[in-house]
């Protein structure tokens, strides 16, 4: 429970940081904030076609300048945030925060 609260807090800080970076990026072209997007292939909330199109668009925009700052992952899971996803998120946060 405590780990989940800490992770949610860290993800919120990352999101707020990303929003600030996005605002700055609109003013200063060339700044691309790190993005980690995780989704479950069996997630009933988001269709795979839309997820795939979003991943493609996001990856294409980062590929031009900083592909290492963008990671999109599709897990073979329903809507959840399991331990494997949490491990990946923590590694991403340690790298970019």
What does this structure look like?
Helices cover 58% and strands 12% of the residues. The chain has one domain. It has a two-stranded parallel sheet. By secondary structure, it is an alpha+beta fold. It has helices at residues 2-27, 48-63, 83-96, and strands at residues 35-40, 70-75. The relative contact order is 0.19.
Write down how many β-strands occur, each being a DSSP E stretch of 2 or more residues. 2
Structural class designation:
alpha+beta
Helix content: 55-70%
Q: What is the average per-residue confidence, as pLDDT, rounded to a whole number?
A: 83
Overall geometry comes to: globular
Count of runs of 4 or more consecutive helical residues: 3
Rounded to an integer in angstroms, the radius of gyration calculated over CA atoms is 14 Å
pLDDT < 50 runs, ≥5 residues: none
Strand content: 5-15%
Taken in chain order, the helices and strands follow as HEHEH
Task: For this entry, give a set of tags.
2 strands, 12% strand, 97 residues, 3 helices, alpha+beta, two-stranded parallel sheet, 58% helix
Furnish the topology, listing elements before pairings.
Elements: H1 2-27, E1 35-40, H2 48-63, E2 70-75, H3 83-96
Parallel strand pairs: 1-2
Helix pairs in contact: 1-3
Briefly summarize what is shown.
With 97 residues, the protein is of the alpha+beta class.
